[in-house]
Structures are given as structure tokens and as C-alpha cells.
Write a structure and sequence with these properties.
single chain, alpha+beta, globular, Secreted protein, signal
């Protein structure tokens, strides 16, 4: 009987939660181009900071940031949600995320070169299915992926 109980407990155990993922259009229900009201209605982010003068963009932080203060949705007056950097563990659909090596990134997205990653500390990749977007993949000093974001190619919030 104990074996049967153990087997049923193992079979009925919930599957581990999948790693959060950005895709060509956003992060789950939070999509590029949304209004502030639409973005807030997803329940994923807290309130946006107020605009300061002519500032082009404001930021809202993820409610569940998994201990990472560098998670955000950036809202542009011109584009709506223009950039989304998900919480720790966020990966692209191809599996690139925090902890992936530069070699993993180059193998997965062959248009990138180690020299460029070393010089700029990031890669930009056009995701399949949305030529107006880019994955912005930040590389840390350890030559591993630190953060993954999806943004409009013509975002006007930074860089």
C-alpha cells in the first residue's frame, strides 16, 4: 500500500514551473505596444513612475521579480510598451537566458561574434516572427548571459 501511495504521489506531483520566457511580441500577456492601462491590467507589473518633464519613457517594475531589481517594462510616449526585461530565469524561446554562455548565444544566434559581445556587453537579435522587435541579451563580466529583454528595434528609451 505504501508503494502505491508513493507512486501516486510522484505521478500526481505538480510539474515544475516553466522558466519565464520572452518571445517576439513580449512576456506572456505583457506585449510590446500596449498602453499603460493595458500593461497594468496584465497584473505582472506595478505602477509606472511619473513622467519627468519631457522624458520620453517611464518604467514599471515586475511585481514578481524573483529577487532581481533589474526587471522592468518601459513605456514610451510614442511607442507604448517599448521594452520588457523579465525577471531572473527569463529565456528566449530558443533557451538563451541568465547563465547561458557566450558560446551558447553564438551557437544559437550565429550572427553574433565574441568580439562584439566583449566590446558592447550585449547582443541584439531579431526574433523570428517580428522584424520590428529585438532580443537584447546582456553579457556579464563572466561572459555569461545576465539578462534577456525584448524591445522594439526603434525604441526611444535608452541607447
Amino acid at each position: 500500500m505504501k508503494i502505491l501511495t508513493l507512486i501516486s504521489a510522484v505521478l500526481l506531483a505538480p510539474a515544475p514551473a516553466p522558466a519565464p520566457a520572452v518571445d517576439a511580441h513580449g512576456f506572456g500577456p505583457l506585449k510590446l505596444g500596449m498602453t499603460q492601462q493595458q500593461a497594468l491590467a496584465t497584473g505582472l507589473i506595478g505602477p509606472f513612475e511619473p513622467f519627468q518633464g519631457e522624458a520620453g519613457c517611464v518604467t514599471a517594475r515586475f511585481k514578481d521579480n524573483r529577487g532581481d531589481d533589474e526587471t522592468y517594462a518601459m513605456f514610451s510616449r510614442k511607442l507604448g510598451i517599448a521594452a520588457i526585461q523579465g525577471p531572473l530565469g527569463t529565456r528566449t524561446p530558443e533557451g538563451i537566458g541568465a547563465g547561458s554562455t557566450s558560446a551558447d548565444l553564438i551557437r544559437t544566434y550565429p550572427g553574433n561574434k565574441q568580439e562584439d559581445l566583449d566590446n558592447y556587453g550585449r547582443a541584439e537579435v531579431t526574433p523570428a516572427g517580428n522584424p520590428k522587435a529585438r532580443y537584447r541579451i546582456e553579457i556579464g563580466q563572466d561572459k555569461k548571459v545576465a539578462h534577456v529583454a525584448v524591445q522594439f528595434a526603434d525604441q526611444d528609451c535608452y541607447e
